[in-house]
């Protein structure tokens, strides 16, 4: 099968994250199974236009990626993506097109003329982004940015989100939360949406060894920004019950300087250790070390399906997280960790103390987390489900 993938950025671009990593995993998995995969993306800062990597061909298109007045700009991604795709499609037709979010909206609008089936992958929704912004109003500056960006969000809500959702042949939502939101926001029939969780390849053999004799150690991995709730984590140690616990933080971001200042001001140098950014291959070893009794996820973002939770689960670490977005798809409350009502930080600390007081439960939930990740969130499961949809569409 020949598959075209449209995405706004790739892992070759400087600014990439979970969406681009998921796309890489999906495309390379399809290529390993013998499918021909071509990824189309804006060139942006890259100094090359074509690349082949791990069986996947990449085409980087020189174009503008502005939504406003795009119809008047022939160099806009909407127009250029159609033009370049047609050149490839006319030589050897594609069977299926994947649109990562709205990146393939140009192809979707012309899919009848192009005679190609299109699957759109929704990683989140516009209202979820607005809710995230509302959750993160903590000063005048953040309120200003919310008001400034609201007009853009509303244009997307009434424009591109409906375009790439309602006009695709099928839609994949990365979590049950995203599926529910799409139905509420676009009124798309439920039967036109499938939930396929993002999967990963996670090197691990056997059971995770238990190396927690050094005490109760918690882990946070992610961007060091207020939206991830990182600013709240220093408050854990205000609770007398948790004075002896420790927290390891892995990541980087604009809040790093403020975080370090808070740690010094509150004399928490012995409680909190910051590792900064860590290469992914090293991160795998950290998850698998058996050192950590809990993974903390106090996010204020409404995320589609946070992959960092899946990685922690593969490492056998139970999770304590706020119940926002797709978090509940990962955490089975009381079985693989605890879902805490958003902003209820007292309950968040209570769950930490419960784990601290019940080491057997930590081990039990950690093993349940690992087994769930292996059975539901592997890359192989993800790819198999996508192929099933492809075959149904093109038959």
TrEMBL record:
Checking Pfam families in the record gives:
Glyco_transf_4, Glycos_transf_1
| Record's keyword annotation contains Transferase | yes
The answer to whether UniProt assigns keyword Transferase to this entry is yes
Residues covered by the Glycosyltransferase subfamily 4-like N-terminal domain: 17-200
Top-rank lineage group of the source organism: Bacteria
Query: Its Gene Ontology molecular function terms?
Result: glycosyltransferase activity
Cited SUPFAM superfamilies: UDP-Glycosyltransferase/glycogen phosphorylase (SSF53756)
In this chain the Glycosyl transferase family domain maps to: 212-371
For this UniProt record, the keywords arranged alphabetically read as follows:
Transferase
The entry's protein name is Glycosyltransferase family 1 protein
Which organism does this record belong to?
candidate division WWE3 bacterium
